[in-house]
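Collaborator request, handled under Task 6.
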Amino acid sequence: MRPLNPVAIAPPFARYSHGVEVPAGHRIVRTSGQLGLAQDGTVPQGAREQADICFENIRHILAEAGMMPEDVVHVSAFVTDRDHMDGYMAARDAFLAEAERLPSSTLLIVSGFTRPDFVVEIEVWAAAP
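Structure tokens returned to the collaborator:
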């Protein structure tokens, strides 16, 4: 995969790439949006804690396909308030800490999810040979 960060536009202001080129012949994994629902059915209150659960779920989904966080080519995240952005971004940066090539990224502020206790939802696209 090749990050696309043209010098003709402002550089990314966080840990992401403006675009990512996926070469022909790669397998693609697309996750559903993951919510901060722990395996025991609990939902922590904080955005960071929920995002950590989302990324841990994504890590397991990728592993099922023989992939790792470094294979992620795009992250879409949704938070219910600007106050949740920092917690989400800290969890994203931890998830991608060992990635040499950063994925593209989209972050949206939404009015809510299926339950009011959810404050973060994350989905990814990944690709590997």
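The cover message to the collaborator said: "The longest strand covers residues 120-128. The helical segments are 47-64, 85-95. Please let us know whether this matches your experimental observations."
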